[in-house]
Amino acid sequence: MINQLNPSQKEAAIYLDGPCLVLAGAGSGKTRVITQKIAYLINQCGYEARSIVALTFTNKAAKEMVERVSQIVDKRLSKGLTVCTFHALGVRFLRQEAKHLGLKEHFSILDATDAGQIIQEMVGTTDKIRIRIIQQQISLWKNNLLEPDDIQPATPDEKEAQRIYRNYEATLKAYQSVDFDDLIRLPVLLMRHNEEVCDRWQKRIKYLLVDEYQDTNICQYEWVKLLTAWHRRFTAVGDDDQAIYAWRGATIENLAKLTQDYTDLKIIKLEQNYRSVDTVLNAANQVIANNPNLFKKTLWSTLGKGEPIQVISMENEEAEAETVGMRISAAHFNKKAQWKDFAVLYRGNHQARIIEKAFRQLRIPYTISGGQSFFDKAEIRDILAYLRLIANNQDDPAFIRAVTTPKRGVGQTTLQHLGEFAVSKQCALFEAIFHENVDTVIQERQLKPLRLFADFIQDIQKRAHQAVEIQNPTVLLDELMTYIRYEDFLYEHHDDRSAQNRWQNVLDLNEWLKRKAEEDDMRLIDLVQHIALITMLERNEQEQEQDAVTLSTLHASKGLEFPYVHMVGVEEGLLPHMGKEDEYGDPNKDNEELYIQRIQEERRLMYVGITRAQYELTLTWCKKRKRNREELNREPSRFIAEMGLEDKQQRLSDPFKGMSAKERLAQLKQMIQKP
DNA sequence: CCACAGGATCTTTTT
DNA sequence: GATCCTGTGG
């Protein structure tokens, strides 16, 4: 098995003497190295699977890795192997060590939306931009392992944010909740000042592998360092040219820091690309050459020269979507390629909508990867609020959502009274209902629906905590659905088509929960925490192998590859993306250093996009694009110039320009007949 | 005191 | 197109 690797890959896979950094260019087979290394550890070196941990950033990457490991390692031997995201390991860690942090085992995990709402109340404003800024600031502080007390506020805004941060922390504690950042931060804090816990985890993980290392933030760096401090055996795999999560606190400096912190660090470069033809690779290399880089590397491949890259200018975004669809359609028939050989990549999620519309009209099957999460849908959040409340009745946000959806005669004012009462009694909203003096603030008439609701939740709760065999999750879920009459609720509030759609989502969620509960032998309440980390509903095996064009954001496309790639909206302002000038603070003062760094990150994003293509790459940009109501004139992205496409042949204008629907169709037919 | 209907306002990227 | 916010009716 190991023999199928090239010399550098092999070296990376079998190096075990100490810390190891693998600098893996795009398409250089880094997943292969990681999976082979895991196999090597288990098959050749006698490591127990349970003592190996591999960390990724996305569930998708984790899932793929699990699959690939299972192909090369015997099932019995790979049992107990941990391959998951940083955050998922964080959940596992915190559940196990909850008591050391004054946290209950079934703490809630708040997503960004929940956190935003909490902050909104504390700031006392509806200004969404301001809330976002504060939320981001707090998140950044957390990712840099800064406690409220560590912060020396330089501006009034920062002082305000610090105040909120303190307040926010206290609120989370009261809710028995943690946010996404805490899933990494709290384990670090605990390991730092609890020797017993620290020791236990250090000895439990005998080998650690980290994927996409360039996307780690300070907190994650520290966690890796702590977890491996005892044996110092780990492999980090990354590519500084593909770092695209600085906005989330990730810092490429972590790669450099590694060389400083570990003087015996073994650095291995993977430079052979197994994915792309020369034209694609050259374009990628040319673009990224405009960025400074930490480690010099030159990608090469042996897949041949390839077709020239095409750049097409479009009149507007409708034309763009339609033309891309038609080109894909034509290529699908001409090249006898499958739909799934094509991808359309874009900067922002909102761009997907118009492409979807065009694809539906053209009858092109597609799947959207990334983008709006299944778990962000209102109906899903509703159901999850119930589950969260059942798992943790101190979760006030979940309580508020559940008790008001569907409406059961509990409104704003009642909740406000209950809230004030709960604050005075220092208890959760849910607990306040059962407080003996609650009738002093809430009239009997308002109290009745509250009590009814709380009794029901308590009943389910009691049974949900029992062992799996006694109380099947299926029974509890079905009972919950029946009690809250959610299907009726949906039909009362939406037209039939929409309601049916939403109800189907709920059924899908239920199916998923039931299946998962059975697979992993878990109780319903144990599953709730895992859901918080999942962005997309994992489809069944058959469904995910369907033949369809992939629509994806550039961010979500990392790690994927496609024979034919279209990147749309390659325009100044969109890629590189520019924030609104008048957002906050003055744009002139917006310091230059920051601007340069932002452009560099956008350039890496462009690089990621280009390197997704195996054989053919097409870039499109629009001369006009609608933004809100105004139609703006646009210019091609600077990155197009940077690719150094001198050949004028590569620059085309929309082949369907100015045509009527009928003419376009005729043109398409012609394209299909004549390659 | 509660619920709903219609209007304005967005849209970077994600665990 | 979807979510928030506001004003009006039950």
TrEMBL record:
Residues that, per the record, bind ATP: 24-31, 275
Name the enzyme group at the top EC level.
Answer: isomerase
Write out the GO biological process terms: DNA replication; recombinational repair
InterPro entries of this UniProt entry? DExx_box_DNA_helicase_dom_sf, DNA_helicase_UvrD-like_C, DNA_helicase_UvrD/REP, Helicase_Rep, P-loop_NTPase, UvrD-like_ATP-bd
Q: What PROSITE patterns does UniProt report for this protein, alphabetically?
A: UVRD_HELICASE_ATP_BIND, UVRD_HELICASE_CTER
GO CC terms of this entry: cytosol
Task: Please report the stretch or stretches of sequence annotated as the UvrD-like helicase ATP-binding domain.
Answer: 3-277
Entry's EC annotation: 5.6.2.4
Q: Which residues form the UvrD-like helicase C-terminal domain?
A: 278-559
Catalytic activity entry: Couples ATP hydrolysis with the unwinding of duplex DNA by translocating in the 3'-5' direction; ATP + H2O = ADP + phosphate + H(+)
Please name the Gene3D superfamilies in this protein's record. 1.10.10.160, P-loop containing nucleotide triphosphate hydrolases, PCRA, domain 4
* Key words of the record: ATP-binding, DNA replication, DNA-binding, Helicase, Hydrolase, Isomerase, Nucleotide-binding
Q: Which GO terms describe its molecular function?
A: 3'-5' DNA helicase activity; ATP binding; hydrolase activity; single-stranded DNA binding
> How does the annotation summarize its subunit structure?
Homodimer.
Role of this protein: Rep helicase is a single-stranded DNA-dependent ATPase involved in DNA replication; it can initiate unwinding at a nick in the DNA. It binds to the single-stranded DNA and acts in a progressive fashion along the DNA in the 3' to 5' direction.
The similarity annotation says:
Belongs to the helicase family. UvrD subfamily.
The entry's protein name is ATP-dependent DNA helicase Rep
Organism encoding this protein: Pelistega ratti
